[in-house]
Write a sequence for this structure.
């Protein structure tokens, strides 16, 4: 099903759902994220896709929220945007992914596997020609295969900067020499680079070179062991093979290095919970119905393939250490940005961000703090706090209406009654219709 704004606007009229005109949301309990963990009983006026501090004109659409809870839209800071064009027709997987993100309250996503088609898609979303989250996008990744020489890497950086990508994606396999050339050129061209840690370089040197975000906690565990433990190893899943060799005394210098660098951490914790988890439990999740058949097979094979990498004890130790590091980063003031790596191994777009919020709470963050990792923290880190990430005049009108209080239990972020993305209000019946369409096509 093609999901253009014009089509959905027509649906909205038929269903009596507010469209893109002035909208007033009344009788909600609003968590602005600017007032701490306190709800405000305020009217929200939306005009031209933004919250405004103004009296709505006569004829504005009024929505009575009947005491429901309102939070800002959430971010997915490690996303993989399919490359199929948004106008490809009824079998357009990319349109489905965009809808699944929005239906679950993701109103901004950072694409971490770039493609030239994403440049047009980013513009179409910003112009409200397509339904989906606002995008920040990386270019095609830098890896041992795509950037083999210094000259090729330098050209690739400059080409991606000229093309208009928001950032560069670092993938494994770069040589130390090539990575340093990427870093120098990116810094000179004023384009950020982010993602994985290059094995030949290591975490601390990557930070020194100016890497913008460290995703997956890549390189963390390797930094916590003696150098000799990194030789002759059977490396698996971001240092899972090294957990028993970690020196706790090294954690403090790791955190200090992160804080001094100014880099942020995007944990993608639920990805690691999935690969070390129970296949039967993953397949039994409600959102399994929103995976195409080929991904169901591929994800199941991936989990089966990782089974030998973990025992119950090593799984507990690995995930426990990761959550300790997440909490220590947050408490030390290292920016922690919400990202689940969707769509990826059983991380169904949109649904997985709520698992990631739960993982942040399991790491020791309060519900309010967990919400901040997907709202105000990313906006602050990108220097765009005046544009999105909170509910205030001048910000993008991105929000989620919830039936249940997320500050009582972070799992209540799943109790979605409506979503607004750039001022477009999607009520529960419209969300349900889109979800039912996907489920039916994926049967």
């Amino acid at each position: 099903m093609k999901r253009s704004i014009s089509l959905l606007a027509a649906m909205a009229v038929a269903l009596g759902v507010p469209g893109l005109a002035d909208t007033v949301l009344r009788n909600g309990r609003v968590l602005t994220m600017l007032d701490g963990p306190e709800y405000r009983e305020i009217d929200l006026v939306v005009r031209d896709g933004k919250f405004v501090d103004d009296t709505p004109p006569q004829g504005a659409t009024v929505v009575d929220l009947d005491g429901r809870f309102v939070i800002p839209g959430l971010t997915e800071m490690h996303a993989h945007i399919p490359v199929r064009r948004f106008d490809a027709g009824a079998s357009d997987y990319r349109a489905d992914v965009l809808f699944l993100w929005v239906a679950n309250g993701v109103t901004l996503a950072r694409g971490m596997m770039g493609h030239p088609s994403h440049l047009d898609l980013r513009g179409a979303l910003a112009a409200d020609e397509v339904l989906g989250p606002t995008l920040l996008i990386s270019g095609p990744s830098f890896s041992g295969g795509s950037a083999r020489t210094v000259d090729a890497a330098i050209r690739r950086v400059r080409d991606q900067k000229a093309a208009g990508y928001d950032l560069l994606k670092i993938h494994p396999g770069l040589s130390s020499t090539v990575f340093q050339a990427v870093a120098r050129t990116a810094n000179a061209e004023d384009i950020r680079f982010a993602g994985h840690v290059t094995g030949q370089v290591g975490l601390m040197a990557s930070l020194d070179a100016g890497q913008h975000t460290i995703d997956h906690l890549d390189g963390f565990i390797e930094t916590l062991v003696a150098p000799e433990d990194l030789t002759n190893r059977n490396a698996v899943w971001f240092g899972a093979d090294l957990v028993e060799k970690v020196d706790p005394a090294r954690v403090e210098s790791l955190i200090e290095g992160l804080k001094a660098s100014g880099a942020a951490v995007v944990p993608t914790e639920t990805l690691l919970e999935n690969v070390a988890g129970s296949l039967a439990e993953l397949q039994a999740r409600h959102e399994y119905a929103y995976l195409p058949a080929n991904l169901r097979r591929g994800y199941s094979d991936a989990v089966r393939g990782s089974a030998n990498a973990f025992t119950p004890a090593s799984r507990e130790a690995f995930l426990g250490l990761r959550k300790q590091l997440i909490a220590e980063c947050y408490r030390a003031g290292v920016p922690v940005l919400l990202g689940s790596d969707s769509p990826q191994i059983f991380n169904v777009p949109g649904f997985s961000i709520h698992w990631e919020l739960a993982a942040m709470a399991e790491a020791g963050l309060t519900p309010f703090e967990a919400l901040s990792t997907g709202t105000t923290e990313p906006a602050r880190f990108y220097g765009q706090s005046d544009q999105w990430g909170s509910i205030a005049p001048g910000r993008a009108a991105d929000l989620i209406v919830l039936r249940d209080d997320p500050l009582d239990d972070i799992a209540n972020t799943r109790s979605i009654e409506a979503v607004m993305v750039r001022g477009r209000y999607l009520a529960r019946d419209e969300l349900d219709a889109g979800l039912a369409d996907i489920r039916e096509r994926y049967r």
